[in-house]
Design goal:
Structural class of chain B: alpha/beta
Largest sheet of chain A: none
Shape of chain A: elongated
Helix content of chain B: 55-70%
CATH class of one domain in chain B: Alpha Beta
Helix content of chain A: over 70%
Largest sheet of chain B: 8 strands, mixed
Strand order of the largest sheet of chain B: 3-4-2-5-1-6-7-8
Distance between the termini of chain A: 50 Å
Order of helices and strands of chain A: HHH
Number of helices of chain A: 3
Number of helices of chain B: 11
Shape of chain B: elongated
CATH architecture of one domain in chain B: 3-Layer(aba) Sandwich
Radius of gyration of chain A: 21 Å
Oligomer: heterodimer
Distance between the termini of chain B: 11 Å
Structural class of chain A: mainly alpha
Order of helices and strands of chain B: HEHEHEEHHHEHHEHEHEH
Strand content of chain A: under 5%
Number of domains of chain A: 1
CATH topology of one domain in chain B: Rossmann fold
Amino acid sequence: MADEDKPKKASLFQVFRDIVYGMSSHEMTRHAVRSRASMEHLFILITMGDLLGVPILPPYYSLRLLPYVTPQISTWKRRMLRERDITDTIG
Amino acid sequence: MSLREVFERHSERRYIMFGGKGGLGKTTLSATCAYWLARQGKRVLLFSVDPQASLSDIFQQDIFGKGAVPIVENLWAQEIDADRRIKEYQDEIRQKILDMYGFDRVPEEIDSYIASASAEPAMEESAIFDAVVDIVVKGDYDYYIYDLVPLGHALYYLSMAKVYDEWINKITKLREEMGQYDQVAATLRRQEKVEEDKILEELQYIKSRINTSSQILTDKQKTAFFFVLVPEEMIILDTRKAAELFARFDVPISGYVVNRVLPEELRAGNIPAYLKNRIRMQDKYLAEIRNSLGSQILAYVPEMERDITGLPMIERLARQLFEASR
């Protein structure tokens, strides 16, 4: 069927595009995403600090934000409370 | 100037507050003022931001948590039920989490956070101030009369409003920066567009709420803040301190009302030494108040022979406050 050829061609192009992406901008993307993630953690800390015993935002309003950060809460807590060692400074 | 003249000259001042230490008669004066304005044909809402509100007592009618209850023509009174408001709000948050992620129940950690957040003392005050924003933005009335919490709380709120405002500006900025990183990642990955940041929207909403309530407290055009004091040494000292603090937070102080002045007729005749001493003491402090506040004193309210509760008593006091001059 003609329909089947089209996605194949497209995916070949896709593969090429992915390779170029991987060689050129993947590292930058990764950096952006990682920076974004640590900012996310910082953000949750300053809004949901109560969860760790650091109250900052008035709790009445921080509750409004809670639904949006619910999925991140457990990873965030782990990250904030885990022990740190020398390997943290590498990479 | 008298209290009456202040209201007549500045009809644009729609938010009226009486402040002062606890137990000096703020609620009584708020109620009296509200009653008088309603009598002048203005639509008035008197509401309490005090968790231990006493409007129900003064009007001898249970109005707690019932919304705006009509008292007399043109006058409504409202006591905010902070506990119920907090409960409803918590449920709303829980429901939102369930809806957003399709959970059967709220994760335990999150749920306990919701529960513990409400135990914070600041929670109640924030909830009440938030409720006030709802009441005031509707703009259904000519006058909004706040039955304020004692000075400390009002100051706490004012200072918090400033801190919150700056703080929210900062996190809003952080959030916007985060959005830029999203944008970069999305562009590099050739994604069409970034998801809109709901959190940023929420932050802007929170900011507007906090701003609305603190703006009203500091609006020189629309707000009149009256201090209530009594002729006693400690009260004079505390009021002076509080007035300085309020001025620093840009609260427009419109004048002072001196409450609990022993009536003239007590001086006549043969009076017991105790009373004589009280009167002498009051005279001294009254002179002190007159010296330091002078023309800013808008009214002297006599000590009544009984509690001010019920409409007839309020009407009597209103006449004293707005029609008599001394």
